Amino acid sequence: MSNEIAFLAEFSDGSPTRAALELAAGAAELAAQSGGAAVALAYGPGAGGAAELGAAGATRAVVLGDDASPAIAHAMAAAAAVRDLAPLAVLAPATPNGRDLAAALVGLLAVPAFGPVRAVRLEEGRLRTEQATLQGAVITVSEPTEGAAQPAVVLVLPSTFTPREGGSGTAAVSEAPASEAGPLGAARIVESHPAEAAVANLEEAKVIIAGGRGVGSAEGFAPLHELAAALGGAVGASRAAADAGWVPYQLQIGQTGKVVKPALYVGCGISGAIQHRVGMQTAENVLAINKDPDAPIGEFADVFVVGDLFAIVPKLTAEIRRRRGL
Amino acid sequence: MVCIKQVPATTAEKRYTADLRLDRAAAEAVINPLDEYAIEQALRLQESGAVESVGYLSMGPEQAAEALRRALAMGGDDATLVTDPALGGADAWATARVLAAALDKLAPDVALMGMASDDARGSLVPGAVAALRGVPLLSYGAELSIEGAMARIRRLTADGFDIVEAPLPVVASVTDQVGEPRYASLKGIMSAKRKPMETWSLADVGLSADELHGAAMTRVVEARKPEAKPPTERVENVSPDEAVTRIVDWLAARKLV
Prior knowledge:
The complex is a heterodimer. Chain A is α/β, with parallel strands linked by helices. Chain A contains seven helices and 17 strands. Chain A folds into two domains: 5-185, 3-Layer(aba) Sandwich (Rossmann fold); 202-324, TPP-binding domain (Rossmann fold). In chain A, helix 2 packs across helix 3 (96-109) and helix 4 (222-231) runs parallel beside helix 7. Chain B has a single domain, classed as Rossmann fold (3-Layer(aba) Sandwich). Helices cover 28% and strands 27% of the residues of chain B. In chain B, the strands form three sheets. In chain B, strands 6-10-7-8-9 form a five-stranded mixed sheet. The longest helix of chain B is centred in the first third of the chain and has 15 residues, at 33-47.
C-alpha cells in the first residue's frame, strides 16, 4: 500500500475543470501529510495535456482517455490505474460526472465511499471526512473501518479546496494500463445541444443573486441581472423559477441543481425550502429579501429583509453602482 | 424495476442513536422523494406501452414494505423487499452489491432509480450497481425513453443538454424533471393490497454477511452540532431606502462592497 493520494481530474474543451484544479490542491495538501504523491486520473477532451496539472499540485498524472464519452466509460481504465497505484484515497468531485466515475470505482473495487464531504484530512495517518446531514443540523465525522479495503473514495463538494495560483511545474504523464471499456463504455452521447445563450458558471461565481417564485416571471429577473452585474456576480435560481421556465435549468441551485459556495448569496423571493438550502448552505454570507416574514430562509440567512424585492433590488443596485463609481 | 428507498421525511426531526446512526424508528418514513420521480417515469413508460410491466425493489428494514405498498398504490405490478438483520447500516458498496444481486435474479431491462437519496446524498448507488452488474449506466436523465433494444436519456450539461443512449439492459437514474409524481388514488391504494410482494433474505440473493464486510466499510466517529452562527439580523417594517442602507452597511462590514 502506497501513500499516494489520487484524484479524478475532468477535462473539458481542452482544459482542466475548476473541480480538477480544486482537487489537485486538496490532493497535494493530503499527500504532503501522507508522504506520498498527488496523482491525477485525467479524462475528457484535453486530458492528454494533463502535465499542466503539475502547476495545480499534481506530481503525476495518468491519462484514462481524452475523448468526450460519458465519464463512466473510463471506469475500467480508472480501476486498472487505481489497482496499480494502490493509493490511500481517491478524491472525486461531487458533480454528476465525478459521482458516476467514483461510483463505478466503488462497485468495481469494493471499497468504502464517503461524502459528499466538506472537509477531508489525515489524522495520524487515518483518513477522516466531515459531512453535513441534509438539514445541516448535524456534522458527522467518518473514517474507514479497521481492515476496510483501500482506497477510500471521497466525494468532495465544490469549493472545499482552493486552486493554487501562480504555481509552476509539470506532472509526469503516463497512460492508464490497457483495459477494455466493457459494458460501461456502451453508453454513448449521440446528440449534443449547447444552449443558445451563454450560461453562467455558478460554481465559480463569488457573488450569486438567486431568484425564486417571488420573482414572478422571466422579465422579473432583469433587476437581479443588474444587481449581479453591479457586484460582479452571476444569477441563480430556485427550482420553482427553473420549472416555470423563467431561467434555464443550468441556473438551478439545490439538491437537483448546482451546489454553490459563493462569498455572497442573495436570495430574492426564495422561500428557502430544504431542497434549495442544501445547494447553498455553505455560502459565506447570506442575504435574503422576501415579502413573507415567515419564509424559512429567514431562519438561516445572515440578514433577512422583509420587503418587496422589486422596490429594494433596483435601489440597492443604484447604491452599489454609486459607491463603485460605476 | 424501480429501486426505491425508504427515508425519514425531511420534515421529521432527526435523532441519532447511541452508536451515532440515524434513528430511523423515531422519524416518519416516506419513499425517498426523488425515487417518486423514478416511479412516475416508469409508470409513464408502461402507459405508453414502452415497457410491459413495472416492479419495485427495495432494500431495508421490514418496515420498508410500507414504502413498497405506497409505490404499488401509485401503479405497477409487483414488489420485492430484500431485508436482513445483517444489512443494518449498509454503506454505498454493500447497498449496491445487494441490489445488484437482486437485480441479477429479477433481470429487468431497466433498473431505474432516483438521482439521489435524501438521507445519504452520495448518488453512488446507480453507478456502483451498473459496474457490479456489468451493464451501461444512463444517469441524471431529465427524461428516459425506450426504443426497441435501446434506452436513451436527455441529460443536462453545463450549458445545454446531451442525448445519451445505451443498449438494454441498463441502469438509469432520473432527476425531478421527468414529471411530477402522481398521487395514489383510493382505487390504487385498495388494489395495492392485492399486488404480489416477495420478501427475500440475504441468502435468497446468494450473498452472505461475510461477503458484505459486515455491511459497512465506513463508520461515524463523531456527530456534533455545526458551529453556531450569529442569529439572523431581521430588517422589517422599514422603507426600501432604509432597507438598502442597512444592506449596504452590512455588505461593507463584510468587505463585500
